[in-house]
Design goal:
Elements: H1 2-21, E1 24-25, E2 32-34, E3 38-45, E4 51-59, E5 64-72, E6 80-84, E7 87-88, E8 91-97, E9 101-109, E10 120-130, E11 133-144, E12 147-154, E13 158-160, E14 166-174, E15 179-183, E16 187-190, E17 196-198, E18 201-205, E19 214-218, E20 235-237, E21 244-247, E22 249-252, E23 256-261, E24 269-272, E25 275-277, E26 282-294, E27 297-299, E28 303-316, E29 319-322, E30 335-338, E31 340-341, E32 344-345, E33 348-359, E34 369-372, E35 379-388, E36 398-404, E37 410-414, E38 419-424
Parallel strand pairs: 1-5, 3-11, 12-14, 13-15, 14-16, 14-17, 15-18, 16-19, 17-20, 18-21, 19-22, 20-23, 21-24, 22-25, 23-26, 24-26, 25-27, 26-28, 27-29, 28-30, 28-33, 29-33, 30-34, 33-35, 35-36
Antiparallel strand pairs: 2-4, 4-9, 5-8, 5-10, 6-7, 6-9, 10-11, 31-32, 37-38
Amino acid sequence: MKPVRNLFLLLLTVSFFACTKESFTNSSSALLKTSVDTLHFDTVFTSTGSTSQFIKIFNENNKGVHISSVRLLGGYGSPFKINVDGIAGPLVTNTDVLGEDSVYIYVTVSINPTAANLPFIARDSIEIDYNGNKKTVQLDAYGRNAHFFRNRVIKSSETWDNDLPYVILGGITVDTNAILTINKSVHVYCHADAPFIINGSLNVNGEKYDSTRVVFTGDRLDEPYRDFPASYPGLIFTDVSRNNVLNYAVIKNAYQAVVAINPAAGPKLTLNETIIDNAYDAGLIGVNTSINARNLLVSNCGKNIVLGAGGTYNFVHCTAATYSSNYIQHKDPVLTVTNYVNGFTGDLNASFRNCIFWGDANGIVKDEVVVLKQGSTAFNVSFDQVLWRVQTTPANSTISGAINNQNPMFDSVNTSEKIYSFRLKDGSPAIDKGVNAGVTIDLDGKPRPVGTKPDLGAYEKQ
């Protein structure tokens, strides 16, 4: 009988503590707290789907609290939707929060189109009713209209101006005989499934101020997605594309930001005062093609610049630099130049003048510049006045005036805060170390010296 009696006592004890844990109070002084008083959504484009966040309801009492209702006050007509622990709103009743426990309210927002050109705010609130108390959480979302293009083919020449942003869904293609001109201040937002394919020509006419540059990025502007690399495929200049010129463009957060494929005659692509940043796989890929780049910054990409299968390349006053982040580990050289890819070998002519090639000293990448050669095709690669991190000087190259392994002293590099400025500090070894290359401005559109030596890299110390 004793084992039976002990078992009975054990079960009674477990039952007692379970009942104690799950007991509830109806006292109005047993208050609930929420993780936020106002839930903010950053810019949400109309017609592009929804974005989600959550609110947590905390019960810090040792007894449970019965929530009579969680109500979205705007009801079914609200741009917001709620879901309380798996039950969809706009009204969810009879939700229990155990003592020292919590429940989640998931909130999504979808903005309907309006005629407004300027950003507008959608607002609503959630009311939590319990024990005679009412607690309210405010909701707000910034909505923005845009030009929406889904799987569009541009068959004749057209111009995009800065009346509204441009949102690309499913992809866009500039046809063979078309020229797309994008004027200053235009922002292009590409969905995750939306490559920007150029079979014809692309002309970007940005200007030097941040507000007048032309920006290509992903269409998720809410945290943390706004800083994710690989947010969209990138810009692809196909083998039939020609005469592309990008002035003061910013291409960021892509998978492969810029890809140019064949032919080597050209130039196929000209990049002036352009920034390529935070591309997951590669910033700039050239495959047996022709690229001219002036005051180009390629920063914090998986592979910054990859030039393969030959081609013709002229880079002047360019900076390629990468520091590891939570999203991208720096494990590849910032510049790779080769005359072959997948068994194909082509003539290679590449010149790099007044450039900086740098990466963080994480012990993985020993040589930030790698030049590889196969076969007996024409092969001419030259570096004239460069600063780079290399353990082994690049082979197969003509080198004049290289500064080896001296920190360029960039103005700001703070990986934890995601703050990067690749301008030069006072005392940088890159200051006044260039040769006159006929470039009169820098990436900021500010003057470079005439008659004296310019600085290396995309920025001139003012």
